[in-house]
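1st attempt posting a full record on here, be nice pls
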Amino acid sequence: MAYNNYRPSRKIPSIVLNLIIINAIVFVAQLVFDSSLGLTNILALYPYNSGLFKPYQLVTHMFAHGGFLHILFNMYALWIFGSVLERMWGPKKFLIFYLVCGLAAGLTQMFFVTNAPAIGASGAIMGLLAAFAYTFPNTEFFIIPFPFPIKAKYMAAIFAAFDIFGGFAGTDNVAHFAHLGGLVMGLILVIIWNKTDKKRFY
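the predicted structure (as tokens):
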């Protein structure tokens, strides 16, 4: 995925950079300690009625990943969308947004899917996508395998439709409801914040 009319700066903002570093450290720890400690199982978010759910999992699941491509795509999206949004909102507001979207994603997944644990930053990333698409709706992206650019607002809609279908079809191991929870929360937050910011000018 790439986009052609809005590019993040080469210098990564502080919160985005630290989130990428934390995710990378946790991923390496998973590779090293999974066989001996079962670290991924400790960090994963379990359904509330599974008997394995612990409150801390609502946070830790956001920093664990299921493979190299999983973390690679999530961190790339975090850099693309997060860099722009952190510069626009500032570090504190951006971190609050990211964590709230991740928590909303976890809660949604936990209550809609009762037979499998979940890991990954994708829910929080979908919140960033929603905010980016709302704020910069006409920014154009190139997404493989499409040979033409797609505007951010349509890209967010496509991902949402894919997750709605995938969530109710239940034919893969993707945490579709976590994606939807993060996306909806991100959209709600950015709409509220935009209205609040506009009122300050009156």
